[in-house]
Amino acid sequence: MRFLKITVALSVALSCLLPSNGYSEKDLRYQNIRQNMQQIFSYHIENKNFSGKIIQRSLKIYLEQFDPDNIYLLRSETKEFLNLDNKDIYKISKQYERDRFDTYQKANDLIQGSISRHRRIRNEIFPELAIVDLSSFKEVQFDDAVPKTEKDLKNRLKYKFMRMLAIREKKAGAPFSKHRREKILALYEKKLRRLESTYYFADEKGLQHDPKTVEHYQVLHILKSITKSLDAHSAYYSTEEASELRTSLKKQFQGIGIVLKEGEDGIYISDLIAGGPAYSSGMIQSGDFLLAVDNFNIQEATFDEVLEHLRGDEGSTVELLVKNEKNSKPVRVKLRREKIVLHEERLSYTYEPYADGIIGKIVLPGFYDNGEGVNAERDLREAINSLKEKGPIYGLVIDMRQNSGGFLSQAVKVAGLFIVKGIVVISKYSDGEIRYMRDLDGRVHYQGPLVLLTSKVSASAAEIVAQALQDYGVAVVVGDERTYGKGSMQYQTVTEENAKSYFKVTVGRYYTISGRSTQIEGVKADIVVPTEFAPYSIGEKYLEYPLSADSLDFETAFAEKSQYKNFQKKYQSLFHVEETQWKKMLPTLKTNSQKRLARDENFQAFMRKINGQDAGARLQIKKKRTAREDDYGTDDIQVKESVNIIKDMIYIDSRSSSR
């Protein structure tokens, strides 16, 4: 089984970056459900049909994807969909074969009723919330995760909105006026109606959707729930969601480069993409309010309508009417839509002097590739070459703490920069096919002390690189005790702009040269230096429906002995990696690090803070990446210790060489 678009990444979502893709035609029909699912089932590593297990999971997910915070549905209302017997399952499976989805439609009827109730409750409590005294507001915990009665639901909603207002007023430093609160609550009403619209089948203005649009949204929700029920990472996407994911994977999009948000005073520009048309014009600033798009007055428009007017093909123009708080007169700005590369989400690097050279520090946020020369491997190679121009590189820290993955091919190429030749990853598919991805160029772009800094959110492709370089003994892995634990691969259609449907589906597992899989267990750090994510329950094992952990026995993995013999002849020699000097010095490096951190007041304050022992702890460390008021330097402590470990590696290696 061979796939062109293999990714190993966690799902990500972006703010509205205004890509050029227009809204999709609302043309999904009930017969498309079985057609799409037959394709997805054929790819999936384990689940091959609409089984009882999938039916039960999908109905649960159908309700959860509408009400993830348990603020709409009552416990008694969901029982019939969560406690199916064999007769129910048989009935639903037979309906599926006839492209009928009565049970899912019944679930949507329940959802619509809960929306009507929710809106009635909001109408009852919002006037009271506009004048309630929040000076003595206190956090509370509810006994049950799901409300039992309407009274219980009303109390939860009242508390939810009171808490929101209390947090905002605390941040502002003073209570809001009644008028201000009313504007804030009106905005929340608008946003809630937008979220409800695809289930209630009416837009946020209350206008009913036409029958085709109703069917489209119903089918979309069903496809999402069935696909998600296959495992923790399979998913079905709308055209708009696919566009955002495509931007994340490729680090580029077409548009004018503005990020919009909706506030109680209107729609405003919250950020500009550096190098984009809006940024380059010099006439638009963050905080500007958007008043019109091509003479379309947006004052009464929905947020989605505004986005639709802003989208367009590359090379086309759009005129914005914007108003800055400093200028009373609105300004018209004409912009041409262009292809924009998201440089801020690409690799970055710094360095610090050491002896007559440097120690490089590289932040690798993902394994991206836009197919036009912008990719992680090229950026890393160029960064190493640029660092060499500053002087001899005595050590290198690659920071992957927030790297959630990306393209598998990029992970292999990145790992290949640090090994002479060898297998980086082995993949196994549902039909038993085994493939190995290798570094073939035989060139090493850096050979010296190398630390890979990871965390609990380092996942997928980041784990492939960390595990492979750890197995080969060319890098020391530093960070949280383990990484995320995602050892599966997905086939996806997201990067194909003209695909008939957008989905990703788990098609296989991957293993490194040791036969180990990172699934569930993750990559274990050689030296533990906890990050800000350490105290949280983050990882594959905390997700619903993860694949089980396993390993690969090469002798029994092949269907025929001849295949294994051929594998032995070609590749087995690459698996016998000698213990490197870095592996030999690990006990000393670990001991030195533990002693150093025990004496480091900043690190100890950091540990008390993340463990909740000292809410007033403040780290005496310079702010580097952000100017946030409460920046405790958590992004710097781990890098500082990684550099110290590099220095230990240099010193120990020099002493060994001189003997």
From TrEMBL:
One annotated Gene Ontology cellular component of this protein: outer membrane-bounded periplasmic space
Keyword Protease tagged: yes
Gene3D superfamilies in alphabetical order: 2-enoyl-CoA Hydratase, Chain A, domain 1, 2.30.42.10, 3.30.750.44
Stretches assigned to the PDZ domain: 246-325
Pfam families: PDZ, Peptidase_S41, TSP_NTD
GO BP field: proteolysis; signal transduction
Entry keywords, A to Z: Hydrolase, Protease, Serine protease
InterPro entries in the record: ClpP/crotonase-like_dom_sf (IPR029045), PDZ (IPR001478), PDZ_sf (IPR036034), Peptidase_S41A (IPR004447), Tail-specific_protease (IPR005151), TSP_N (IPR040573)
A GO term, aspect molecular function: serine-type peptidase activity
Family annotation (CDD domains): cpPDZ_CPP-like, Peptidase_S41_CPP
PROSITE patterns registered for this protein in UniProt: PDZ (PS50106), PROKAR_LIPOPROTEIN (PS51257)
PANTHER family: CARBOXY-TERMINAL PROCESSING PROTEASE CTPA, TAIL-SPECIFIC PROTEASE
Family listed: Belongs to the peptidase S41A family.
Protein name per UniProt: Tail-specific protease
Organism name: Aerophobetes bacterium
